[in-house]
Amino acid sequence: MYFLPIDAQDFIFQWYERYEMAEFDKFIYLWMSFNAWLSKHTKTKNKTDREMIEEFKKTDQANYIELIKQDSELNNNVEWLCENGVLNYRNETIIKPKNIDDFNGIVECIYAIRCNLFHGSYKRDVPIDRKTVAKGTEILAGIYGPILKRERQQIARLKLAQWEASKRL
Length: 169
Fold this sequence. Notes:
The protein has one domain (46-164). The protein is built from seven helices and two strands, in the order αααααββαα. The chain has helices at 8-18, 23-41, 49-57, 61-70, 72-84, 103-118, 127-168, and strands at residues 86-88, 93-95. Strands 1-2 form a two-stranded antiparallel ribbon. Helix 2 crosses helix 7 (127-168) and helix 5 packs antiparallel against helix 7 (127-168). The longest helix is centred in the last third of the chain and has 42 residues, at 127-168. The chain is globular, with a radius of gyration of 18 Å.
């Protein structure tokens, strides 16, 4: 089977844009973009999702927490997560952030949602599963969306600079 080469940046943006299409699919599409972004921006080579998540939890925590606090909807979704948590179906424990400042706990919940969804533990017809995935989607979008926005702006500036340089030649 032959695969056409796809620019990594286009791949990241395509998955991000698809996350808006459907309910559980939103999380899956968003995660695919985020996961590709993680693989591009984490230092360890040949890393697992867990390793990338551990590295992500160590970066810019204060900025992400401030972002959560400034956005009332994002704040409400994180508070819901703090109250309800996420059932980790693998070991049947509940993962909860301690509070809105517990970025590690928030990321762990998002990762647990990913694992539950990707490994078939969530069901579309179970209301709490649907609500948990919806909350997780909103939280991940609220954290990751601004990251991608900054990258798009940087790429646009770079393309403009390249275009202006080519005009001078």
